[in-house]
Predict the structure.
Amino acid sequence: MKTVLIIGLGRFGKHLAIDLNRQGHQVLAIDINEKKVNDILPFVTNAQIGDSTSIPYLKTLGLNNFDVCFVAIGKSFQSSLETTAALKDLGAKKVVSRAASGVHSKFLLRNGADEIIYPEKQTAQWASIRYSAENVLDYIELDDETSIFEVSIPQNWINYSIKKLDIRRKYDITVIGIKEHGRIDFTIDPDTVLTLDMKLLVLGEYKDLQKCFKI
């Protein structure tokens, strides 16, 4: 369990707060808008109305007690920049800031952000991959080149074993798990015969996954 501070309760900040709370983390959510704070209060550990650009206010939060601080402010880049810098100056361990563009990202990193997230860009990328490929159900990007895909079994793989298909040699990707009836088995038997009910978790470079699953 981690202690998390989320500043900014627009759509992204709100969903982030709810999901982190659902996972069992302690979440303090902050926004300058009273209605947004009242709306999120039932779903988080605590929520406060506060101006994140106010140094005296931020000092009352005990920032060094949070494992991670998210700056999810979307409408005012100036407020996002000031908040990011202030958090780091006041001793926040890790600051993750939302950016809308590469320019925003550069300024935020120069002013204290440890990491940058692009909610709209990342969602668009996920959707473009998910809905442009016949077999891809979900994916996790590990770095600029490597990803894990959850895929349905291609029609021409059904009733063949992993060993028979020789997936690793032919496509340079690795099967790391088999999902069946909602459960994932990471103990891979090469003689397992693939069926229509199964899903595969496969690891590899994006270019190889793209070629294999025709993304």
